[in-house]
Each structure stands twice: as C-alpha cells, then as structure tokens.
Amino acid sequence: MGRTIPSFRIAEAQEAAEWKSFRKALRPRDRAAFDEILSSARLYTSASSAAVRASKFEGMAMAAIFHHYKLLMRAVGATSGMEPKVGEDDSL
Staple partner for 6: which of 10, 56, 57, 72, CB 3.0–4.6 Å? Predict the structure, then answer.
C-alpha cells in the first residue's frame, strides 16, 4: 500500500504551526496582520490543493497573494472611480 497524503487543510494547519515562532517574534500589533494573511490563504484551499505543488507553503503563499491582489484591485477601482475588472462579482 502507498503512503497516505494528508489533506491540504491538515497540511495547511501544520504549515501555519511551523510559522508560530515567526508570529511570536512579531510585534503584538503586527500579529493580527499575520493571522489575516494565513486566514486569507484558507479561502482558497481547494485551489491550492488542486495546484499539487511540492511545497504546501507555495499554495498558501499564492492564495494569500491572490486574495490581496483582489483587494488591491477593488481599492484601486473604488478610489479611481473605475469599475474593478478582477473579481467584481466574487465575494471575498
């Protein structure tokens, strides 16, 4: 029998636990931002698991970058009066 691979959600939780010392070293006011980054990565767990990358961190990082890109494009659209073209119908 082959070795069982944990679900991406479990692997994602393990990866977040490995960053615990990094989080602890942050200023208390910065820890909330770090927690938000990890939370935003969880929004795209299905997409990250479908990517089948060797490193679970790669999927989490791309998910966080993608989420923040969508937020940035919405903010740019809101401040410039332009219609955002990315994710305008998607909920965050």
Answer: 10
